[in-house]
Write the structure tokens for this entry.
Amino acid sequence: MGTAAQISGFGRRIAPHALPLAILVIVVVFAIAQPAFLKPENLIGILRQVALVGIMATATTFVIMTGGVDLSVGPVLAISGLVSYFCLAAGYPLPVVLAAGLGLGLFIGFANGAVIAFLGLPPIIVTLATLSIVRGSALLLGGPDLHLIREESAYTFIGTGNILGIPVSIYLFIAVALVLIFVQRRTPLGMLVAAVGENERAAFLSGHNTALTKTLIYGLSGLGAGFAGIIQSSQVHTAAATYGPFGTELDVIAAVVLGGTSLMGGSGSVARTVMGVLFLGIMNNGMNILNVPIDMQLIAKGTIIVVALAIAELK
Amino acid sequence: MSVTPLISGKGLTKVYGNFVALADASIAVMAGEVRALIGSNGAGKSTLIKVLTGAIAPTLGTVEVEGVIAPLGNPTEMIARGVACIYQHSNLAPAMSVLDNIYLGRQPTRGFGLLDRKTQRANALVLLERHGIDLDLDAIVGALPTVKQKEVEIAKALALDAKVLLMDEPTGWLAAADVARLHDTIRTLKARGVAIVYISHMLDEIFAVCDTMTIMRDGKVIAESAVKDIKRPKVVELMVGEKLARDSAGAALVGRKPRGSGAVRLGVQNLTKRGVFKNVSFDVHAGEIFCITGLIGSKRTEVMHALFGSDQFDSGTVELDGKAVKFGHPAEAMAAGIGFVTEDRHREGLMLGLKVTDNLVMATLKKFWRFGLLDRGGIERSAKKSILDLNVQPPDGRKLVKLLSGGNQQKVLLGKWLNLSPRVIILDEPTVGVDVGAKAEIYAILRAERDKGAAVLVVSSDLEEVMTVADRIGIMVSGQLKAIHDADKVTMSQVVNEIGEAA
């Protein structure tokens, strides 16, 4: 009894710090196994690799906090990139191009949210349907081709530019994360998301517009995916309907859940989602550096997610 | 009839920390006896029942079934010995048939894990026949009326060869005709030699169906009597205790303020929602506490939600300070100065996983908007003040609400609504699961709000509470407000009888 109580007491104290500790542990392990891991170029590479998933995961954290999910982020990424490409090709100025890509993502997100919040349909079904509709629309719009983005240095700067030796996409990820951490901690929306996630009925009975809150956060999730779509098309100088393939949404959800947000809803944190993103990114990178074959990587990734969740359950 | 009781508990004591839930309580029930177990909320009835079913182990004392000492705190063993309990809330699987429910979890099998439907059905028919229960075995339980569901529960218990049936407020959800039906079933069981313990607040029911009674108060057995040897007023006095009877009489003399300042703050006329409540009319004055009591399921909560805009009504009028209002969303009612301390703080009231501070400002968040941001400093100050005013223990705003005791959680919920400075404050079952000390504090807060001029509207099933805080009392029966009394001109037993008689 005594030891069990001690262990669980220890577990409870350590649980909030489990993720940062886990990150520290894997960094040390990879650094010992392959000193090149710690080279600045590699660390920057990790951040650059996680920027897209990171933006989408932080933007969808609120959705998961309310017990919802957004499965449509992959196709939204693709269609926002495509729409931006077509606007570029049509010669519109950069602000219009960005507004079109971001606006479409936001719109699709709002549509998801409105159907979920006002019609009371299950998020998993609604966003699965959206995933299909948006992918289909993207294919209709872009066909099977890769659309090359040429001589648009202002646009490609978003994905490939450097400031002080660090890729712009990393600054963008950091900016999105900081803004959303601020929204969560300092704005009414952050408080409402926590309230709806904890107890939607009580939030409604406290006079809050829970349906509007939910619509807004799905909009935010769509906006994040749209932003990621712009960055990606600018990074690879192409737009295509097939970008953001199946599995994109799972990477995003995995990062949020690793950050300690329960899929059942309830407490969650954007800052911890960032750590979840970093953890997954470091694992991927470390295994690549150590030449772990892709099959083993996938198995390891899945195992780690299950183990991490099991540890989270213990608290 | 044998002289050994079918079930008996001797010297049962249950202590939680400093709290004595059960103090040296004894009970014995013979075959063919229907024994009433009565007492106010918190008197220890549930604890006693839980000890008898093995759900909890007593700190001291023994339980015997047919004169044989039974293991304590072992529900499976008690069921095997024939002790079954029918709880207030259904434990049935609503989507399954009556037959499946009766044998849920222990279906006869034919080997290879296959169900033996034939034997099952034959056994069930014999069982129902023997006990004179009339049920369609193929009916889906969820589609049955509530009284039939109770019969399914009884049949389920009897299928376990129950010799002792403990029934915890079995009629709370039933209409009068159905109560009579259930009582017929109980009489049949009694004739078959089943020992029954019947918990109820309804004296009418107890005088109708029970042979003997055990009256509890503060964890002790206060009195035992044959039903025919005792009068109702004596029962009520024994239940609430002379001191409380005296105290509330004293409070009534000095404290009651029927119609408060005289101005009608909230006027409700002929409020109707089809199939739910009908022609509900009452006024709540500024500076009074108006309590609506009645059985659980008499649709009091539904009326409150209709007033607050969290549900709609079909016809009738609601006036606030003489002006007609109809709210489509709680936010509109709140803007008009109405607060609603909802029933069931876990499900409808609090965000258990959030901090005390955040919960306290949940209904008044708009006050802390500054250019689209939250004024964290203002929130902390406001919460700190609430915590001190309400004596929330521990006085730490950073604590998660789920870590507080029931009484302190309820104070946080109350504080959240007081921060709105409501002109009308509705409270639905404000002290369920709250200890005696916190109860007294909550009553003092209600009186203070009243004395500040608020109209206080309380829904409560706890008659002791109603008699303690009400200035006027409304009695609701099956969706209709049957009577309104000045609290200083009515006794508890009158109220009890009106609740029961009208049903």
Summary: Chain B touches chain A through 27 residues (CB under 8 Å). The CA atoms of residues 95 and 142 of chain B lie 6 Å apart. Chain B has a mean pLDDT of 86.
